[in-house]
Amino acid sequence: MFQPDEIIRSNRKTISVCITPLGKITVRAPLRCNEERIFAFLREKEGWIAKHLRKTIGACTRIPTENLDGFSFLLLGKMHTVSLVDGNKVGYDSENLRVFVPRVKARERLVKWLKENAKRILSEVTAKTASEMQVSYRSVSVTSAKSRWGSCTADNAVRYSFRLIYAPKEVVRYVVVHELAHTRYKNHSALFWKEVEIYEPRYRERRKWLKENGILMEIF
Ligand SMILES: [Zn+2]
C-alpha cells in the first residue's frame, strides 16, 4: 500500500495521483475529500503507481553505480536507460531512449559523453537565447559543479553544471535565460527577475522543478 508524500486539496471534483521523477507521490483531491477515499483511490491505482515508481530517479539512484547496466536517468527530461556493450564508443538511440556504454570504464566514459553533449547543447541554446535577448557573453563552459546549475562571472563568462542536461528543455532554457540576464544585472534584483520573466514567463515553475529535483546533482 502506497502512502502519499503530499496531498494537495483544491476546488476540484476528482482525485488524481502523479509521481515526480524522484518518486514522490502527489495526490490532488477535492477540498472536502476524506482520507479514506484517498487511500481507496491509491489502492485502486496500486499497479500503476508501482510501475511508475520503478521508472523514477529515486529508484535508479539506488542501483549500484559500479554496474550501470539497466541504469535509468533523465536526459533533457526523458528517462533513458543504459546498456553496457563491448567496444569503446558510447552510442545513442534517440528513438528507444537508450545509451550504449562500453563495459570497460563505463562510468568514466558515460560522464565524458554527458559532458561533451552538455557542452554542445548548452552552447547552442546559449547562442540562440543570447541573440533573442540581444545580449553578449564571453564564453560558455561546462563544469562538474554540484552546488549550482549555472553561473555568470563579472566578465560574462557563462558556466553550467553538465548535470543541467538531465532537466527538461524548458528548464534548461530557464537557466540559460537566468545566466544571460546576469550579463545585464549582476544581482537578483526586481529588475533582474523582470528581465528573466520577459523571456521565460513561467520561470517560477522552472525554479520549482530544479528545487524539487535537486537530487539530480548527485548523479555522477
Ligand atoms: Zn543568478
Q: How would you explain this protein's 3D organization?
A:
By secondary structure, the chain is of the alpha/beta class. The protein has three domains: 6-53, no CATH class; 60-104, no CATH class; 112-218, Metalloproteases ("zincins"), catalytic domain (Zincin-like). The chain is 38% helix and 22% strand. The chain contains seven helices and ten strands. The chain has helices at residues 35-44, 46-53, 57-60, 106-133, 169-181, 190-199, 203-212, and strands at 6-10, 16-19, 25-30, 72-75, 78-85, 91-93, 98-102, 139-143, 150-152, 157-161. Strands 4-5-7-6 form a four-stranded mixed β-sheet, covered by helices on one side. Strands 1-3-2 form a three-stranded mixed β-sheet, covered by helices on one side. Strand 4 and strand 5 form a beta hairpin. Helix 5 crosses helix 6. The longest helix has 28 residues, at 106-133. The chain is flat. The two termini are 32 Å apart. The model has no long low-confidence stretch (mean pLDDT 90). Residues 178, 182, 188 line the site of zinc ion (ZN). Zinc ion is lined by residues 178, 182, 188.
The CATH architecture of the largest domain is 2-Layer Sandwich
Give the structural class.
alpha/beta
Low-pLDDT sequence parts: none
CATH top level label of the largest domain: Alpha Beta
- Number of discrete domains: 3
- Give the overall silhouette: flat
List the total number of helices: 7
CATH superfamily of the largest domain: Metalloproteases ("zincins"), catalytic domain
